[in-house]
User: What shape does this take?
Amino acid sequence: EAGVTQFPSHSVIEKGQTVTLRCDPISGHDNLYWYRRVMGKEIKFLLHFVKESKQDESGMPNNRFLAERTGGTYSTLKVQPAELEDSGVYFCASSQGLAGGAPRELFFGEGSRLTVL
Amino acid sequence: RKEVEQDPGPFNVPEGATVAFNCTYSNSASQSFFWYRQDCRKEPKLLMSVYSSGNEDGRFTAQLNRASQYISLLIRDSKLSDSATYLCVVPTGGGNKLTFGTGTQLKVEL
Assistant: This one.
């Protein structure tokens, strides 16, 4: 079974440009998450989709970030315009539905490394 | 106080040694906890879940101390392949999102 896949694995762009990251979750996983790790810092939550709906987007840094999950399948995270501080590794993760309130295991993709120059 | 705190290390230990990491959390209402392992430039992968007082899986033991609000991970008979960063993770926001510690780096040497 395919795991969580992310594209691109690495993107180098200039400040002010736009980048779109894509995530394909494990088939059948309703929950899809975006996380980010900035160098030297911990992995931080960005947002959570349940199917096509945004369940929690409290971690999104600002309105330059836009996440979508049309049809409840793959998701995209667009950064427009990119700033230097957006550099980091963007991880996508997916999981099955919550069971009795207990969170299930999150399966992570290998991440998309973004470098903004 | 950070929601999840870990000693970043690195912990350099010889092969065969026993090593323990601690993690403290701030939310006393947290019910479940996780240890994830992350290899260099790879994704985090679940190592162990802790829902009650502790959990054991082979050479790995996770313990929970609710009174002191810390979780520990004990690795016995460490192997070279155990070298990685170990992330302490606590569900927050009703369990829908995970809060990560900065991770503890372990290097097992010959």
Notes: The longest strand of chain B covers residues 84-92. The two ends of chain B are 37 Å apart (CA to CA). Chain B touches chain A at residues 4, 31-32, 42-46, 49, 51, 87, 91, 93, 95-103 (CB under 8 Å).
